[in-house]
Amino acid sequence: MAVIRDYNKLASDILQEVGGEENISNFSRCATRLRLVLNETPATAKANVQSMPGVIAVVESAGQFQVVIGTHVADVFNAFSGMVKMNENGAAQKTRWLDAVIATMSAVFAPIVYILAAAGILQGLLILLGLADADIKSTGTFAVLNFMSWTPFAFLPVFIAITAARHFKCNPFIAVLCCCALINPEWTALAGKIATGSEVKFFFFPLAETVYTSSVLPPLFLVWALSWFERRVEKWLPEVISPLFTPLICFVVIVPLTLIVIGPITSWAALGVANGYNALFHAAPALAAAIIGGVWQVIVIFGVHWGITPVIMANFDTQGYDSFQAYQTIAVIGQMAAVFGVFIKSRNKQLKATSLSAGVTAIFGITEPAIYGVTLRFKKPFICGCIGGAIGAVVASLFGSLYYAYAALPGLFTLVNAISPDAPMSFIGELVGAGTAIVLTIIMVQFVGFEDPVEETQNIEQSAPLTVGPLQMLSPIKGEVIALESVKDEAFAGKVLGDGIAIIPHEGKVVAPCDAQVATLIDSHHAIGLICDNGAELLIHVGLNTVNLQGQYFTPLVKEGDRVAAGTPLLAFDKAQIEQAGYDLTTPVLVVNSDEFTLTRHQSQGAVTVGVPLMSLA
Q1: Fewer CB atoms inside 10 A, N or C side of the chain?
Q2: PTS EIIC type-1 domain spans which residues (predicted)?
């Protein structure tokens, strides 16, 4: 996957390929994917988006067009959010109910997954500290860190209120207010009385003993109901009193409705599914382990893995432990081992680099780059990872391994979640199972092998010229040089997109500043990206906000993939017409990956002609 730092461009390109804003019913993201619900999927969208720099893969699953981006998905999602303004109703009614459920789970949990992961890591560290020094548990420091580690789980309904309100498009403050009522200590005390046999009614309706700390489905369905009810209340009320009475009416209706109906039913449903899995686990733990360890990464491929979260949370809430995540972790570790197995066996430098990067990401529990970038691409390593994960999980099940702390991103660092003073063999079994998955998978990859593209790499290496010493960049435009900080655009002036200089053009022509390859030619033709022979990524952006011209007055003279020499004409533009249209033609010349180079400016201001040395990169 090519490196990209212009996430606004990537988001714009994706939006264009999928048919524009009018073709989008809904969109969300998870830890690694931009998830789009399209009214219709253009025939060429998958292939075109998948070939974009910065995109690992495209998966069409669960009624979604899922663009796998990796750890920078938040940057692309934020850019995408600024380009797509969903209307009140969208076109969500066209989505199948199962697809809508999966999309909702992803939209709700993905934004808070790292918060939960941070708390889970803290819990794991406290477990280790307690084992190293039992007396530390009686200290105030341990007590403070311990309640901190449980905070996001105790207040999980509040986090869900925030993310679900965005997904269902309702007032987030009303959603938080309602969900806070569910975890109010006064309700917990009332529920405790009901549990001991006392009857408590809301008017004529008896209340259940359900408590909602750490709950998932009750707050989720609460916000869903709120989104429907709030819109109707706003329509009923006169505009002058709506800001005050809409929160009041929603509050006094939705909270009791949840306590009487929504909460008990959804809690029962989550427990029912959890009990079904637990029944299989208790009847045949090795079978449950083999299924989860072997199939989990297949589920990840289709992007429906968020749907299991309520089941896992229900187990932790009712039992204080969970077996699913113990096996899920080993499945993740199996795929991690598979990509490291490819790294060990491959003789392709590019594949080794990709495998190493994806493997490091998989250590932290994110396996999509490993799957789409390496193992699934070559098929056999993916299968080896699934087999290793299944066998490793079965081994762990023989020790009775369980997780005693929730792992938002199960992986190598969450193995400590299997530690419990009451079950000393749990952690040992998890270690042995994980070790089995790692060793077995790597060995299988070495013996089974895959089609290593060695010759392709050698050809690339032989054909690619090498640059020794600093790379000299010549001026691509005739004009007046100014400091980048002087550009009247915050992104350019703040060097968000990279360091460089800017030129106010005196004529409408752009040439190559060095020997390079044309990496990107933006559809509106106002900007061009180059990759220099030393790896520097250049962006020449003609004018400010000239993307709005949609290519008018611009004429590209090269195409993507072309090899150009210094001085080769790249782009022509009608300077007079663009200025007459009211656009500032100040042209930033940026080194996008400037953090990887030492940039020396030969000229920071004054007149410059084409071909004059402008900067050096070392």
Answers
A1: C
A2: 103-460
